[in-house]
Amino acid sequence: MSSSASTVESGRAADSKTVPGPILLLGAPGVGKGTQAKELVKLWGIPQISTGDLLRANVSQGTSLGQVAKEIMGRGELVPDSLVNEMVAVRLQQPDTANGYILDGFPRTLGQAGWLDGRLAAQAKSMPVIAVSIQVDYNQLLRRITGRRSCPVCQTIYNVHMNPPKRDGVCDVEGAALVQRADDTEEVFKERMRAYEALTAPVVEHYRALGRFAEVDGDRPIAAIAAGIVAAVERMRQ
After folding, report:
1. Which domains does the chain have, with CATH numbers?
2. 3-state class of 104 per DSSP?
3. Which of 37, 51, 226, 227 has its CA 20 to 30 A from that of 43?
């Protein structure tokens, strides 16, 4: 798609009058969920709610939930769904969520999806969750992840396959040797994919069965992907 076409689609997205409600972005590691969440926040003026951010905020602020979470993590244990659910429940009471929000990392399991659906159904004015999955070919994702390199000085990110530096292995800006993150390997990527599919497949099928699930092509310009998500949400909110 040309840049002018993607600009037109982005304009249509920005003109959307649909109240988005709760939107769950799904997608394998590397599809660009974080990038799309930021685009949708700008287009719709709604917040992004990340369970990772919520957990860190509660711990750093010393809330009662954060203190419990800190104690659990201090023992090397995973924070249970029940505690994450409580943090989400508190966040959803904030006034900036009235027209909707982008869910990032939640619901991650079928149990969390069931809890969220039940909570929203119990509130008279709440809309149900719409799940949108960003789809990118496995081999393309592998190239995105394993080809990623960064400058340790200025943090500029390159990709040896799609956005290489002018000189192999050297930052264009600083002239420093580029580095690869320890988890940007094919072995780690395969493991992350297995974990993602095992956890998320039931969530996908849950929302698909409810008729509140859509897939968008993630191998396009950022604005075009965002426009595709907006179109899917408009279609399901009618």
Report:
1. 3-144+213-237 (3.40.50.300)
2. strand
3. 51
Q: What count of other Cβ atoms lies within 10 Å of the Cβ of residue 118?
A: 9
Tell whether omega for the bond before 107 is within 30 degrees of 0, i.e. cis. yes
Structure confidence by residue, pLDDT tens digits, 210-226: 999 999 999 999 999 99
* Cα 230 from chain centroid (whole Å): 15
Taking the whole predicted model, whether its pTM rises above 0.70 is answered as yes
Catalytic residue positions, numbered: 33, 108, 148, 181, 192
3-state SS class at 14: helix
Pairs from 34-37 (Cβ < 8 Å, separation ≥ 24): 34/104, 35/222, 36/134, 36/222, 36/225, 36/226, 36/229, 37/102, 37/104
Q: What's the confidence (pLDDT) of residue 15? A: 56
Encode pLDDT of 54-106 as tens digits.
Answer: 999 999 999 999 999 999 999 999 899 899 999 999 999 999 999 999 998 88
Please, where are the H alpha helices in 18-137?
33-44, 51-61, 64-74, 81-91, 110-121
148-150 vs 130-135, strand pairing mode = unpaired
